[in-house]
């Protein structure tokens, strides 16, 4: 949290609010045993916050923008079909002119061309000559917070290089798990339709590198992105499939042996996909539950959940900063606390209706504690999440089961030829269902830009809804709390939707957006379609509206109403902005001091300008 904007002052305010809330609950609650859970969470988060603050790594400025020679070891590498493939390297020595090798121990995020990706393997040691730069956000509204994301993985630097920029010093043998995943990927390519290949890789190998942007957008809008991130849903389905298969041999395999086989399989699977936090949580929980089954103890699911979380954070404290980790534990907390109560509110006799109600209860329980985190990170909310998850419950089991069968039988003659078309048909239904949800009116609510304090207030509100409804059995009080929470969200949403401003973006060419009520004018100076679509997609999450795109292709533009007046005049290589009687000159190249009488706006690389666009700049009306 220290990296996501929490200051000591904000944390103190939140801590006082949390203490007051627990005192109020202590006075009003009949049974105080459940408050022990709150005490544990409070002490745990206090310890975590101060540990992260004390251990907040200061980035050493030993890498300049000049090219350096660096010896590094490849520790991760995605081998895809993209122009730039992502990987991680451990930097070992920095070589500078006139100096000996300087030991360094920093991780390097790198992007390399397709040829280099085929030549490199995990474990290779290379001598790289490239520019090393700090990972920094562009600072545009709604963009992915890459800086915090990579800080949570203890990675602060990045580089781009091609085949001619490195020499391989030591060639390591490709690790077994990499050879296995590459073999599976190669075989899947032969049998799965190209449009479904990226989904299959994400579903079974946790590799989203082959997903196109359209698929990502569809799943995000429908509220189904969790299906593409391997988590407890997948592990639970795998375990269910293993048990169903082993049940066929119940005369030879006891229940204890089936549990042991399941444990071995899911740990091996977690190893193959590099132990992502959400999978580690699921595997640990299942392992602890299995141990509890053997010794007839440790049956409290909430204790098991937080025990697994404590183990993971002891292994790597930075897991606490991982979005997947936060969402996974928030969802499981909601399910453990709320699902038993919600599922018993309605007891239909019809099996189909009962299954539907149980799935609804499960979705509502998971959403109770995750929606504040989703609003904070993604700035949008899928309105049809219940409908989406109904379809996922039905189709995901079939997809995972048949997909797993396909992977297992890839080397069996004829089997892939029979199974692959069935899997393609189910994926066709799944993708079609997701796209149908995406096209429904009001499929997604955008425009939620929360600060850490507001997110925490929503989390506290969610807990109060649980406490008053499930624990205290006071539905009227719970309804009042829910109404307050919804009013708070609506107020934040209204504030966001009715902001009037002009924002200048950090981009390689001048671009800006004029947001007036529900209308957005996106203006750019010959920016490529791919780049301005990415900027607009992120911006629209925070400030949605009807978008009109205007290119300054040797035209003069004027937009005027009772709120703002904006005029852009382009003459050859000059661009002038006039905003409410204030004049600015847009500079693409370095400027001399006092060169212009008007105020200057400099593109990201321009130094000395009055306004430098190395991050977004807002003019609010």
Q: Key terms for this structure?
A:
621 residues; alpha+beta; 19 helices; 21 strands; globular
Structure description:
The protein is of the alpha+beta class. It folds into four domains: 1-56; 67-174, OB fold (Dihydrolipoamide Acetyltransferase, E2P) (Beta Barrel); 179-321 and 401-444, no CATH class; 501-620, no CATH class. It is built from 19 helices and 21 strands. It has helices at 8-28, 35-54, 114-119, 146-151, 176-191, 194-205, 213-222, 225-228, 232-246, 255-272, 277-295, 301-315, 323-343, 351-378, 385-408, 415-439, 452-471, 475-497, 529-542; strands at 67-77, 84-95, 102-103, 107-113, 125-131, 133-134, 155-161, 166-170, 380-382, 444-446, 501-504, 511-516, 519-524, 546-551, 557-560, 565-571, 574-579, 582-587, 599-602, 611-612, 617-620. Strands 1, 2, 3, 4, 5, 6, 7 and 8 form an eight-stranded mixed beta sheet that branches. α12 (301-315) packs antiparallel against α13. The two termini are 32 Å apart.
